[in-house]
Every structure is written in C-alpha cells, then in structure tokens.
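Format notes (please read before filing issues)

Several people have asked whether sequences and structure tokens are stored in separate files. They are not. Every record keeps both together, in the order shown below: the sequence lines, then the token lines. Line labels are part of the format and must not be stripped during preprocessing.
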Amino acid sequence: MKYFIPFLLVICLFNACNKKENKNEILVKQYFDYFNNHEWNNMANMYIDSAEFKDPTLGNEIVKQTRKQIIEKYSALHAIFPNLKDKIVTIYKCGDNQMVVEFTSSGKAADNSTFELPICTIFTFENGYITKDFTYFDNFEEQ
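Then the structure lines:
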C-alpha cells in the first residue's frame, strides 16, 4: 500500500502531461482539417486576434496578421488553386506549447499547372489559440 500512492501520483502526472500534448495535437489536426476543407473562417478563428507570422510569402521578418488578413490570404490562394490540400507527414511536440508540423502542400491551377511543396510550420499555442505561426519552405523562384 505504501508504494501504491506514489505510483498513483506518477500515473496521474504522466496522464496530465499527455493531456496537454494531446490537446495541442488535436488542435493541429483540426487546423489541417479546416485547411483541407477550405473553411478559412474556422481556421482563422483558431488564431488570436493578431498573431505573429514568419512566412516567406510575407517577407523575412515577423509580421502580425489579423484573422481577417488570414482569411483573405487563404481565400486568394484557394482562388488560384481550387483543390489546395495539405498532407501531414509528422507532428512533433516541442515544449509545452509548441508543435512542429511537417507537411506537403499541393494543388492544381486552372491552367492545369500543379505544385507540391514540402513545408514545416512551428505553431505556438496559448489558451487553445495559435499565437505564432512560423512557416518555412523553399520560396526560390527559378529564372
């Protein structure tokens, strides 16, 4: 019996840590479901009012984006690539409030040109919302 209580405490602590990890992983999967279903309003509502972004399409510096700007950005991208999809390769837990997601984005334009782009994003969560979205991919254009 004297070993049962410490054992029970260890199990409870382990489960508490796993719940936090699972919560952020669930949020990441929900984010990609919204993306793949082109539910830009729902996806944007996963962010705080003005989140920090690091994204090659926005320049080299950290840029604040509102939910409205997020919706506009992805709506414009969707207009070019109507079948835009992301496929998660791997999700990594990084600390208590960050998840790193490796994924492949693909789509086909109206002129039948296609793309497939490997991407890595670091999401930072606070209180169930995305506060930072730091995305990395090769944005090099061929001459």
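For reference, the curators noted about this record: Residues 4-36 form the longest helix (33 residues). Helices lie at 4-36, 40-44, 67-80.
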